[in-house]
Each structure stands twice: as C-alpha cells, then as structure tokens.
Amino acid sequence: MATTKKTTIDYTTLKTELDSVMLELQREDLDVDAALQHYERGLELVRQLEQYLKTAENRVVQLKAKFN
C-alpha cells in the first residue's frame, strides 16, 4: 500500500527561495527567458507567502476570540 506524505512549506523556506529568486533577477548576465521564469516563480512565491500570512492572521484572530 502506498503512503501519501503531506509536505508543508514554512514561511522561512518560502522567503529564502524568494530571496534567491530576487538575487538571480539582479544578475546582469541573465537572459530574457531565464528572467521570465524567475519572475514567474517570484510571483508564485509572493502569492504563497501572502496566503501563509493570511492564514496566520486568521489563526491569531481565532485565538484572540477564544480568550475574550
């Protein structure tokens, strides 16, 4: 029987990858095709980070409501 493994990416991992993408985009010798790929990946990482922070914010709101 195959087992499924749920992978969770944390904020630090996402932020580190975004920082790496940003460094690549700053290279002067980066060709247009690679730049577009990095830009697209950067946008996806930003979306994931925004979702992560929204989820964290919702959790804080729920915790506050629980103790009020």
Quick recap:
With 68 residues, the chain is mostly helical.
What would you say this structure looks like, in words?
By secondary structure, the protein is mainly alpha-helical. The chain has a domain at 40-68. The chain has helices at 11-25, 32-67. Helix 1 packs antiparallel against helix 2. The protein is rod-shaped, with a radius of gyration of 17 Å. The termini are far apart.
Number of contiguous helices: 2
Overall structural class, as computed from helix and strand content, comes to mainly alpha
Mean pLDDT: 91
Using the CA coordinates, give the radius of gyration. Answer: 17 Å
Poorly predicted regions: none
Kindly state the percentage of residues in helix.
Answer: over 70%
- Tell me the number of strands: 0
Distance between the termini: 46 Å
Task: Using the alpha-carbon principal axes, give the shape.
Answer: rod-shaped
Describe the main β-sheet briefly. Answer: none
Beta content comes to under 5%
Helix and strand pattern: HH
State the assembly state of the protein chains: single chain
